[in-house]
Write the structure tokens for this entry.
Amino acid sequence: MLVSAKEMLTKAKAGHYAVGQFNINNLEWTKSILLTAQELQSPVILGVSEGAGKYMTGYKTVAAMVKAMIEELNITVPVALHLDHGSYEGAKKCIEAGFSSIMFDGSHYPIEENIAKTKELVETCNQLGLSLEAEVGAIGGEEDGVIGKGECADPQECKAIADLGVTMLAAGIGNIHGKYPDNWEGLSFETLDAIQKLTGDMPLVLHGGTGIPEDMIKKAISLGVAKINVNTECQLSFAAATRKYIEEGKDLQGKGFDPRKLLAPGAEAIKATVKEKMELFGSVGKA
Ligand code: 13P
């Protein structure tokens, strides 16, 4: 069964750890993440971007796959199925398709419009018992063709959105999606601190988890981050393991071309990455 992310994030914020959101792209990704969460007894959030939803043939397919997999694999830890960087229309579609958590990313709208649209979705999600993530201050980098500038959010605007009753809030603090450039200035803890002071108990979300140094992750958690999104890092470890398999000529030996064999090293690599992150975020044993 899927659960809303509210309870797991409230506990994480109070307990000073973070729950990982790992983005899924297909069956292998989903299976690796769910099995790792179960093994480590960690709550987990499966993130689905609009692009990934389209790739997997639609949100209904994704919701059906994830729900069935939880049952077939006997997964008992809390799992939220979450739309990542949703548009207003995407949010409505995922609500209909049976997702348990929604992100509405209105950060590219003028703040008044972001507030109005987020407010409307707060009401819908509250009625249905779904968690809702809102965003203030675009996260930099490129994700599924969406390019953000990488800003530091205005703490007052964060408060205005938090006060609408969203479950969790993503705020730009100099973070970006994808690999960080060599000249990256690091996270703005000053901004994060100011946001947490104004938003109190609200679980804060750190996007762009790939490549953020461990000490910065820990400091961000100490300043109220309770959800950390990781996507690119799983893609990189999957690709590296698959490359190794092929470069070693294993696909040419015996039945090494069988997709179940060909994709196995990548699937194992994702498990290792997810484990490493769950340990770093402190969510192990918190299910
Ligand atoms: P990365 O791809 O940089 O890990 O970011 C993931 C993310 O923030 C998804 O919303």
About this structure: The longest strand covers residues 79-86.
